[in-house]
Amino acid sequence: ISVYPRSKKYQRTTKYKQMKESITSLQNPLVKEILGVQQKAARRKSSGIFVAEGRREVSLAMANGFVSQHLLVCRELFQDDPNYPVLVDDATHNTVYVSRKVYNKLAYREDAEGIMIVGSQKTHSLKRIRLSDNPMILVLEGIEKPGNLGAVLRTADAAGVDALLLCNAKTDLYNPNAIRASMGCTFTVNVGICNTGEFIQWVTDSKLWKNRLPVVYATALQNSTNYMDAVFHGPVILAFGEEAQGLSEEMRRVASKAIHIPMAGSIDSLNLAASLAILTFEAVRQRRTAQNDCR
Description:
Helices cover 32% and strands 18% of the residues. The protein has ten helices and eleven strands. The strands form two sheets. Strands 7-6-5-10-8-11-9 form a seven-stranded parallel β-sheet. Helix 6 (146-159) runs parallel beside helix 7 and helix 6 packs parallel to helix 10 (272-293). The longest helix has 22 residues, at 272-293.
């Protein structure tokens, strides 16, 4: 597992590993460092650390190979959940117990679940993306709202897509609000992070695609066809732009076809996450039907 190196400041907090006495002070260095990681994207980037709270989120992170630097547990609040198991006494998790006051300072919701993970981020280069023989990939260009990113991650997980690629993202994958909105799917989806130029080079590499380049569908309001007329059977990429500006000119040029969702009311478009869910599950429906017809 490839993870970012820890910052020197973060490394100093490792003296709290295996601490059995609860941290009770809000001035504790570990508490301050965690708050910084939660609140500042630059701190998350420089330290290579993320913070996620809740049994489901912690369990999914660990089940998908994310390394725990610290597991924070509040004895007063934490209860086991058989659906999302966490072995809090496992020595490899570096469990640190905290008081209720400290936990509530760090947590988004007061008195909720009593467990959070301080973990190492993975690397997300395109070189590490592994695809099936007939892949389906989602691309977000310029996404800026953590809530939208989290909702997209949930859809990507539910649909079982091969990968979600973030191009020129204006929010980071490990933003606490994105993790929270994803219901832990930040840790279950195969995510690549790149700029638009890197994506174009990747998607047009015939050797990578074994001379079977994917069909790239760009979402656009103008000069596009109804999504229900599109065919999503083979290797396919669905590309979505930010809500205000849409896809860049570079992304539209690399697209094979442009599609839209017809609107019957007064507005001309849907929220990004809603549009993506509709198109993604139409593609899933077609692909499953095609598979069943071949049996």
